[in-house]
Amino acid sequence: MATEQWIDGVLADSFPASDPPPWTPAVTYPVPVTSTPAIDVVVLDSPAPRTFVQKFVSFVAAMGVVLLVPALMIGLPFALAWRALLSIAQSRPRPLEALSPLER
What is the tens place of the pLDDT at every residue in 54-86? Predict the structure, then answer.
């Protein structure tokens, strides 16, 4: 008898822990089936054929981009190095003979 009362007491104390969490649904409902597809199908017609001028302009623009990237990758470090050298050359002190009378 004391054992049953002890079990009942333990069960009563642990009652909230035995409840399922509120985010788990007790009842699941099937997803309704619709007759319309979930994704709309778009049919694209082939575009009109491009003229030679349109193809040529597109090709020239693509080549401009292709040639611009390596030129920047190679030319930019040289330009920055040249600027640094000029900055160093201008910051060197000049000899007194090179100064004008007003600068002395």
Answer: 999 999 999 998 888 888 888 888 889 999 888
